[in-house]
Amino acid sequence: MPGRRWKGRTGSLTRLEWLAVAAIVAGAAIRALWVFVFHQPFDHVYSDMLIYVERGQRLAAGGELVRFDASYPPGTHLLIALPSLIFGSDRDGLWGAAVLWWLMSSLTPFFMWRFARLVLTPAAAALTAIFCALWPLLITYAGYFLSDTPSTLFLAVALWLAARAIRAHGRSAAAFGAGAGLTGGFALETRPQVALNLAVVAAMLLFPWRRHLPAFATFLVAGAAALSIAIVHNSIAAGKLTAINENSGQVFWQGQCDVAWVYYGPENRETYSFAAPAALQRGGGTDYRFLTRQPWDQGAFYRDGLDCVRENGPAHLRILGRSLVDMTATTVPWPQSNEPELKEFVNLTNVLYSIALPVILFQSFLLIRRRRREGGGSGELLMLLHLACGFATALIFLGDPRYRIPYDVFGLALLAALLADAFLDRRERRESVRAVAQPV
Questions:
Q1: d(CA 290, CA 108)
Q2: Which end of the chain is more exposed for a tag (fewer CB within 10 A), N or C?
């Protein structure tokens, strides 16, 4: 039975929670086989992975920062630099980075479990851990030196600590708030789009302000301290005060102006070139070539993107709608799309999830409404808000399954809440009522 508890020295766990533990261990083992045997990430270093690895190794070797280093957020290449600094800027250092990526990917289901345990029912939290531990899209990204794996882990830890801060008092609340700010800042340094999720966290800590003010204050201070690392790094690279990354303007322009390829420099002598995987897979779009503009000219790109919005008028809704669709089944996640056998497996998983997601969202709305009518809190609403932050990225910038996949943990948590409510939580409530009704 789901509610039966097995007791031991480590405390009391239900059978479902023990199954969650087993799934996390199994997920770590699967990730180990993937990262260390079948898909070693240092054998797939190109495009964005090459940028992160090259910068991390150069930093570990004491090399100077260059102007382009400020374009990408520095968190990922700082993580790669750490094992490179310890083991050397060669294959040994990349082996160390592979271990780090495996560890971060393996820990994500555990911290999602801890977070869900504070906002959902125990059964829903256990199912969340199981789904996240065995989710193929999260597993496969562990085989690439990309920002997806560390940003997902840091965000999960930040959400767990923030939830702890809300339930704590005094110094404990302030300490948990500081931890949430620090890990949230690290998440932002690896993937700036999580700023929307951190805004949700800040709102959680701010209201009611009198109770959560210490946690809110330490959250802001610790987050600012973490972000100062990125700002100092990029300001040194740019030679002026700058933000945590300088390519957001270009990404905004690519999404709002239907861009295919963008080249910098004369033909056949390009200094940089970029393209969005979704745009290449669907075809169409316009190629651009800039002879004098640079990728970090954010002001010019934002102005051009806003010009496209104004020129399109109401017809721009079509581009925004297409960006939302690009986040789902119409695009094969990159970089798995470059590997034929992996492409088919990942595409099938992505399509099935995309088909299920509207049903999950609709049923979640019904569950949230019922919880509100019953006068109880709704952790499902919190999960829904964090999931929506991922799709807001498609509207503000551009749509790509890679931008959505880190948010799959929240979609899986909603699925877990629905299944727990339908098959586990109600059964336990009925059994509790039956036990109370038994004559003595």
A1: 41
A2: C
Rounded to two decimals, the pTM is: 0.93
Match 């104004």 to its residue by tokens. Answer: 310
Peptide bond into 208 cis (omega under 30): yes
Instruction: Please state the domain extents for the chain.
Output: 12-245+330-425, 248-295+297-316
**Element (DSSP H or E) covering residue 7:** strand 5-8
Q: Which two tokens stand for residue 125?
A: 């939290």
Q: Give the containing element (helix H, strand E) for 262.
A: strand 259-264
The set of residues, in sequence order, having a beta carbon less than 8 Å from that of 433 and lying 6+ positions away, is none
Percent of the chain with pLDDT over 90: 83
Go through 179-200 and write b for each residue having 16 or more CB atoms within 10 A of its CB, e for each that does not: bbbbbbbbbbbbbbbbebbbee
Q: What is the pLDDT of residues 25-55, one digit of tens each?
A: 999 999 999 999 999 999 999 999 999 999 9
Model confidence over 288-309: pLDDT tens digits? 999 999 999 999 999 999 999 9
Assigned token pair, 131: 């789904």
Render the burial of 256-270: b for 16+ CB within 10 Å, e for the rest: bbbbbbbbbeeeeee
**165 and 202 in contact (C-beta within 8 Å)?**
no
